[in-house]
Amino acid sequence: MRTAILEVLKKNSGQYISGEDISHTLKVSRTAVWKHIRALKEDGYAIEAHPRLGYALRQNTDRLLPAEIKAQLTSTVLGREIHYFSELDSTNNEAKKLATNGCQEGTIVVAEAQATGRGRLARGWFSPHGKGIWLSVVLRPPFSPMEAAKCTLMAAVAVNRAINEVTGAGCGIKWPNDILWNGRKVVGILTEMSAEMDAINHIVIGMGINVNIDQQEFPSEIAATATSLAVAAGRQVSRVKLLTAILAELERVYTVVKNSGFASVLDDWKTQSITLGQQVDVHGIDRTFTGVAVDIDADGALLIKTSQGLERVLAGDVSIRPASCI
Amino acid sequence: MRTAILEVLKKNSGQYISGEDISHTLKVSRTAVWKHIRALKEDGYAIEAHPRLGYALRQNTDRLLPAEIKAQLTSTVLGREIHYFSELDSTNNEAKKLATNGCQEGTIVVAEAQATGRGRLARGWFSPHGKGIWLSVVLRPPFSPMEAAKCTLMAAVAVNRAINEVTGAGCGIKWPNDILWNGRKVVGILTEMSAEMDAINHIVIGMGINVNIDQQEFPSEIAATATSLAVAAGRQVSRVKLLTAILAELERVYTVVKNSGFASVLDDWKTQSITLGQQVDVHGIDRTFTGVAVDIDADGALLIKTSQGLERVLAGDVSIRPASCI
Fold it and tell me: Do A145 and B120 touch (CB under 8 A)?
């Protein structure tokens, strides 16, 4: 009923419609209409009430409500099941629970805020309320666990392309799956998997996307290295539009990979990379070294040309040296 | 207190000791002694009670009770935390829950019976009460997820060696990690992992070991392909002794791998293999073919020489052709 009332208001595109008309059209009591209008306001819809004219929808909600996502969804598998929360500890934790309990492929988890958002290598992720897209997607790919590292490149390619299409910001990918604008991080991706030795049960692709965060809102410890798409684009960005664009692009790339393998994703990754050709410092589990990032190989490993020869990096951290330091 | 009473009975090695003596030695009431004796009987200890002479332990329990395992444990990490159940759906499911909730490395889960024991490729595993070792071990290896397939070979090598030491049965490994005696399966291993793209959170090594199952007890659909160690050895096998031997051997091999890599495990696997040198049928996800299994490579993949050349198999099923069919 709430959705029906919302549809009536939206169809009236900002014009007033009386409570009596709504009540008559939808065959509900005036009291029920009033209660649903109040609930819609709590969901962030700006609805004006006039004692004589009735109700008018002045502004859509800016929340990532399932109904709003569904209205703009163009993907068919990704997002067909949406779990929405005002706050979670971490969308990946919730998605992993759902996946373990057998949720269908394409299930997504979104939260307005994360209390303990997680990044790669057990780092935190700043996830303020209503300002970003804190999203996890469950996939059940028919890949070997040995191909899992490439799924993270796939996600980076899809998200980077969707972001640039929607915002025009001109972001690029830092190996393996951070997305940067002007040297600062706007997106982090954390992919986790549950697998048997020769088959993946599920992977959860978690994305932290800084959308409408003002530069001065970032905590001091990341203020110099993080920014948001709003800063990059010079305007507020619709989170629902961006989220649905990301799901559509991820579904498209995922379908290509399932049908034809990872080759085209690796090519796309190279085109969108800001790491290749750069002087980088590699901080591995047990060693640190410097070299020029020259390529990624078929496994998704980064190839670094050093004074000792070619090094292959599959894990750890890579930092790009500022041009002035080279 | 129960453990203390059991120790007194065991120290008396089958001789009677009066309830009064126990009560006096351990400073508990006669009623408490009687209650604990009753509980020990329920745990499977055969204790004879004589109105005048007191209590005598006639036979140790044959259950995989934590106290019995600990008494014979020689490993220091594996088995330091034991979760024991009379029945579970699957020991791997329970171990995965414990691992996700942060249990320490080496935690084990044992059950007398599994309602829905699982094998590789979503198959079931016949797990009757008290007749096998249905065991899962949690490891937190510092390996890349790309090395995970080799953990399954590591487990096969350790279990096969422990089994042959304890029973003298002469079992061998069928790729990747079934253990066979006389062409019939006695052990299945299901390794599952939770990982980020470049780091393993945990792996759970699940083992289904047919110990004291009579040949006629197997359900008809597996009667021709399964057997037990008791059948192979021609005698009942102590489950506690075998379980602790497996933990000790797995810990030893795991330590070698952590310190020096997988090379020696791959060599051991080849020595213990019954697949190499055989004519095999390979049933992959999307193809079926025939050839001679000639080697495993550094990733643990099976190499098959076919009329078209060398094929590399990382997933799927391999069946060995009976010699008479070649």
Answer: no
Beta bridge partners of B296: B302
* Residue B3 and residue B61 in contact, taking contact as beta carbons nearer than 8 Å: no
For residue A104, give the DSSP letter.
Answer: P
Give the integer Cα–Cα distance in Å for B193 and A144: 13
Tell me whether residue A29 is exposed, middle or buried, using C-beta atoms within 10 angstroms of its C-beta: 0 to 12, 13 to 18, 19 or more: exposed
Q: How far is CA A263 from the centre of its chain?
A: 23
Helix A148-167 vs helix A239-260: crossing angle, to nearest 10: 140
CB B228 within 8 A of CB B210: yes
What are the DSSP E strand ranges found in chain A?
Answer: 46-50, 54-59, 82-88, 108-114, 132-139, 172-174, 178-181, 184-196, 199-210, 279-283, 288-296, 302-306, 309-313, 317-320
* Residues B108, B78 contacting (CB under 8 angstroms): yes
How far apart are alpha carbons B188 and B216 in whole angstroms? 19
For residue A294, which phi and psi values (nearest 5 degrees)?
-105, -25
Report CA-CA distances (Å) from B297 to A195, A299, B264.
Answer: 21, 17, 13
The verdict on B25 touching A (C-beta cutoff 8 Å) is no
Q: Are B207 and B199 in contact (CB under 8 A)?
A: no
B194 and A193: CB-CB below 8 Å?
Answer: yes
Cβ contacts of B120 on chain A, cutoff 8 Å? 196, 198
Report yes or no: A39 at the B interface, CB cutoff 8 Å.
no
Size of interface A-B (CB pairs under 8 A): 82
Predicted confidence (pLDDT) per residue in B281-316, tens digit: 998 767 889 999 999 998 888 999 999 899 988 877
Asked if B201's CB is within 8 angstroms of A192's CB, the reply is: yes
Which domains, ranges and CATH numbers included, belong to chain A? 2-59 (1.10.10.10), 66-272 (3.30.930.10), 279-325 (2.30.30.100)
The token pair that represents A118 in the structure block: 């997680």
Q: What is the pTM of this model?
A: 0.84
Task: Return averaged pLDDT per consecutive 10 residues of chain B, 326 residues in all.
Answer: 90 88 92 92 92 91 92 96 96 94 96 86 84 97 86 95 96 93 95 90 96 95 94 95 98 95 94 93 83 91 92 84 57
Does A197 sit within 8 Å of B193, measured CB to CB? Answer: yes
User: pLDDT, tens digit, for every residue of B114-135?
Assistant: 988 887 766 788 999 999 999 9
Q: Among A100, A191, A197, whose Cβ lies nearest the Cβ of B197?
A: A191
What residues of A are in contact with residue B148 (Cβ under 8 Å)?
145, 195, 197
3-state secondary structure A238-264: CHHHHHHHHHHHHHHHHHHHHHHCCHH
Residues of chain B contacting residue A146, judged by C-beta atoms under 8 Å apart: 145-146, 149, 299, 314
pLDDT at position B121, please? 64
According to DSSP, the β-strands at B108-114 and B82-88 are parallel
Buried b (16+ CB within 10 A) or exposed e, B193-210: bbbbbbbbebbbbbbbbb
pLDDT of residue A35: 93
From chain A, pick out residues whose CB is under 8 angstroms from the CB of B314.
Answer: 144, 146, 198
